[in-house]
């Protein structure tokens, strides 16, 4: 046997029998068309999406998604948080290898964040069904409830309850700005499942998530796809500054108790400290509890601070520095105090599973090498606590996300779908 013959024989021997039979392939046209079709529920005139978790449009797309999964032989389970598990049987019994993401969006969201991951999972199931391809392990598509946290705070709520990070009681009792709870909405839409929302009740063999990058790294590098090796840590806080409202015309500048002045300094300080520590700081929500008027000094300011870092120790240092700085600013601002500082949610940095990441890495081999630590939190952070997890990113135009102009090309979507299918099949044949 020549050297090249023996090399070929070795490669063949390494490919499991199941992979040598009619290997499934992604139908790029169908994936793209179905993704756009699913955006009929919640689309906005500017081309974006407004499909807040568990609103009527979210319920419609969920029902449609379940039907599509059932058409390709899936058994569907909905848990007590409304998380959807569509499972296609494999040769063996046992927990499924899952492909999960979310269908809810920001109020000014785009058509790809989360939606891509769910629709690519459906396409993988369709491709397997069409090819008559049976994986060793069952395969699952998962729709996690309220990933965005735009309607019900905090984000990644459905997967957090499944992972035991939050209790069911906590998850179901979250309310939106109108006082409507998660549980009420689950009941109204008949998505209050009887199965416990728990990684013990519904275990997973692994979790793969395809997602748009939501940042500019891939677009800048002109690379279509990336291996995601982990997720950076983040913490959210709600901070209240108490001053004293008074008349804009009669209160001299040097006698004002103006919380807005302190707030502006804090916003600048947060920016500077984030740069200093190599992290990120964002104030994305700001308002006042008191009624506002053009000729009144504000009584109070309430704002949300989001800080992130890929290193947990540096994250501690960044938070400590921000706390010291904000306290100093409040102290030197006449009549203004830091009335409260509430931690809303926190997530530690995550390193994804080496084997699952390796499957993604090998599935990406045809493309330029690109590895990323995710800047955004994802449901995969929660699944990684209980099963091997990995993520795939595809490029999005100008790195824009959470905005109607969020966009990924049809070609990149096809690449993402193919890499997801390949990575899942590789994992299936390895474990
Ligand atoms: Zn997302």
From TrEMBL:
<dbReference type="InterPro" id="IPR002933">
    <property type="entry name" value="Peptidase_M20"/>
</dbReference>
<dbReference type="InterPro" id="IPR036264">
    <property type="entry name" value="Bact_exopeptidase_dim_dom"/>
</dbReference>
<comment type="similarity">
    <text>Belongs to the peptidase M20A family.</text>
</comment>
<protein>
    <recommendedName>
        <fullName>Amidase</fullName>
    </recommendedName>
</protein>
<dbReference type="GO" id="GO:0016813">
    <property type="term" value="F:hydrolase activity, acting on carbon-nitrogen (but not peptide) bonds, in linear amidines"/>
</dbReference>
<dbReference type="InterPro" id="IPR010158">
    <property type="entry name" value="Amidase_Cbmase"/>
</dbReference>
<keyword id="KW-0378">Hydrolase</keyword>
<dbReference type="Pfam" id="PF01546">
    <property type="entry name" value="Peptidase_M20"/>
</dbReference>
């Amino acid at each position: 046997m020549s050297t090249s013959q023996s090399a070929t024989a070795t490669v063949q021997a390494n490919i499991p029998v199941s992979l040598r039979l009619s290997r499934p392939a992604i139908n790029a046209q169908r994936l793209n068309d179905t993704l756009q079709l699913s955006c009929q529920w919640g689309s906005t005139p500017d081309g974006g999406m407004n499909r807040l978790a568990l609103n009527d449009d979210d319920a419609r797309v969920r029902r449609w998604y379940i039907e599509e999964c059932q058409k390709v032989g899936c058994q569907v389970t909905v848990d007590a948080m409304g998380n959807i598990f569509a499972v296609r049987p494999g040769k063996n019994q046992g927990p499924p290898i899952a492909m999960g993401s979310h269908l809810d969006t920001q109020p000014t969201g785009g058509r790809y964040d989360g939606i891509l991951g769910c629709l690519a999972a459906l396409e993988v199931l369709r491709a397997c069904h069409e090819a008559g391809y049976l994986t060793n392990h069952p395969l699952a598509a998962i729709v996690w409830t309220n990933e965005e946290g735009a309607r019900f705070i905090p984000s990644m709520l459905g997967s957090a309850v499944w992972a035991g990070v939050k209790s069911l009681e906590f998850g179901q009792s979250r309310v939106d700005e109108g006082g409507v709870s998660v549980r009420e909405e689950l009941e109204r839409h008949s998505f209050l499942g009887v199965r416990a929302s728990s990684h013990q009740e519904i275990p997973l063999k692994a979790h793969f998530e395809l997602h748009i990058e939501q940042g500019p790294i891939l677009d800048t590098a002109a690379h279509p796809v990336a291996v995601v090796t982990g997720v950076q840590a983040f913490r959210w806080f709600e901070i209240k500054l108490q001053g004293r409202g008074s008349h804009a015309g009669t209160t001299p500048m040097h006698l004002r108790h103006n919380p807005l002045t302190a707030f502006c300094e804090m916003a600048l300080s947060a920016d500077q400290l984030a740069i200093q520590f190599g992290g990120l700081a964002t104030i994305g929500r700001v308002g006042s509890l008191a009624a506002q008027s053009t000729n009144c000094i504000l009584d109070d300011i309430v704002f949300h601070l989001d800080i992130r870092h890929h290193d947990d120790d540096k994250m501690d240092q960044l938070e400590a520095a921000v706390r010291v700085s904000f306290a100093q600013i409040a102290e030197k601002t006449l009549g203004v105090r830091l009335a409260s500082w509430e931690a809303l949610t926190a997530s530690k940095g995550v390193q994804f599973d080496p084997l699952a990441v390796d499957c993604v890495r090998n599935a990406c081999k045809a493309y330029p090498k690109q590895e990323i630590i995710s800047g955004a939190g994802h449901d995969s952070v929660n699944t990684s606590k209980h099963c091997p997890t990995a993520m795939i990113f595809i490029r999005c135009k100008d790195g824009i996300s959470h905005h109607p102009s969020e966009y990924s090309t049809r070609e990149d979507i096809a690449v993402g779908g193919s890499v997801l299918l390949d990575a899942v099949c590789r994992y299936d044949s390895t474990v």
